[in-house]
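Notes from the 1:1 (GR / supervisor)

We went over the backlog. Supervisor wanted to see one worked example end to end before approving the batch request, so GR pasted a single chain during the call. The sequence is below; no edits were made to it. Supervisor asked that the structure be written out right there so they could see what the output format looks like.
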Amino acid sequence: MTRFRSGLALSLLAGPVLLTACGGGGGGSAAIAGLLPPEQISVVTPIETAPLPPAAPVFAADSDYALDRARVHVYDPAIEPLELVNEILCLVSQTGIDQLVNEGPYLAQVNRTICRTGEDQSASETGQSSGAVDEFQLWTVNSARASNAAPESVQFWIPEEDDGQLLTIFVDMLITHGVDAEFPFGEFTLDFAGAQDAASIGSAVFGGALAASRIETGQAGFGLFFGKGDLNQVPSPGDHAEQTAAALVVAAVQPNGSARVRQRSRFDFGSGDSGILTDEYLVAFDETHFLRALDGGAPQAFHRDQFVENVWRYNLYDAATGERVELESGFGFRTASGD
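Structure output shown during the call:
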């Protein structure tokens, strides 16, 4: 299992701003309340039993070193596709659909950078040039609900570029239960398609669906599908097709859960047709261990408190004061001797 820490960003291996397009204010109508959508989940959260080396120097409590935030990310190939679930939830949670229900179409300024798990977010909070740069999009959003007993219907129009092609992602979301103590991730269905315009949605470049519901055990169940291209067609040079299907069950406080992930791909990146390649993962995790099996093979168990760590993103600080040092980053290269 791999984990990334940002700020001191590491990789480890283990055994909204709302811009209204109409004159009304926020908060939904006086009589009809909006339903709260879920925020990010973390399928497997990191566990640390001791400070990471080197030991933190003693700086003033108001120094940049003390105030800049560090984030930790657990990575494993089995759960990588599930991060799409996490990213969708994070993006939707920034759009204020529970606050601007029945207010008509509006623009939501969405920060994509903070939703990309594993990247350094310290730059977005501190302005440090060594971290990730905030990437904002303006989404057109319309949220409507007929009554407090009715579901909430939401549409998003999202600008996107895919392989150099300008697209719009058309999203239709139906929320039947907002987030509360009984439904920690709410209950909803969400369908999306990336196409040049509304008339070409039937031949979309990519598309998929995400659904969440509360199951009888009290856990939350997620279903995800994503598809791009036609796996049954021989790809042209430089083209690829892919499909991801996943089912995830996670407890409300997320100490345990299980998932099944199936990925299929086909590509030609200069070496000819790869044929259809398939990977299927079975995953289970609890507070201390993570278990995975690939393509029906023997399960592998990992401790969630034992890591080999690598820096992913970082900031540089003055050794005497702890103040951040602005960096002018260059570009990486490798010499002929391999350095």
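Supervisor's comment: Residues 2-325 form one domain.
Batch request approved.
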